Amino acid sequence: PKDPLEDVETWSESVDKVLSCKAGQIAFREFLKSEYSEENILFWIACEEYKKIKTTPEMISSANRIYSEFVQTEAPRQINIDCGTRENITKNISQPSLTSFDSAQKLIYSLMARDCYPRFLKSHMYQGLLRRNDSSDQEDKTTTAKGKGENASALCPCGIFPQHLSCVGSLYFLKRNCVNPL
């Protein structure tokens, strides 16, 4: 199987490259968590999932969940948006549409792209992933997870990150926070 971190170098091209792959989302989320702004990517991901909804009851339920978790004043993961955008969403939440959160999502995307993403690229976390990628490029590609060495490509339970990444810098979170723990 393809190494999910094979494209880690492309993440430096744009925030879109980070957000377009599961491994990038997980790494960026962990970075944002360290900056106490994890709500930004969680909201962005929730909006992306919301846009895929096909039924009205599911849309209403999901819109209310997103609103109560991220948008309303004093929400547990309140996002940083202007009061006009917040008021507009509040006014229309009783009759949500697939575009209900678009303006807020654009604001949060801009915030992440402008402020968080440049810091992510300079972070120990991202630099550790780059170093790991460079060193694995130099390793024998035939090494497998069947016990042929310490750098074997066994994946963590979520199937995204190699288990040995947990010892690279601050990346111990990968074992702790697998999205699909066993």
TrEMBL record:
It is a peripheral membrane protein. Its main location: membrane. The keyword Isomerase does not apply. SUPFAM superfamilies: Regulator of G-protein signaling, RGS. GO terms for cellular component: cytosol; plasma membrane. Signal peptide: none annotated. One of its GO terms (molecular function) is GTPase activator activity. The keyword Membrane applies. It is found in: Cell membrane; Cytoplasm, Cytosol. Transmembrane segments: none annotated. It holds the Pfam family RGS. Keywords: Cell membrane, Cytoplasm, GTPase activation, Membrane. Residues 14-130 form the RGS domain. This is Regulator of G-protein signaling 1. It comes from Gasterosteus aculeatus.
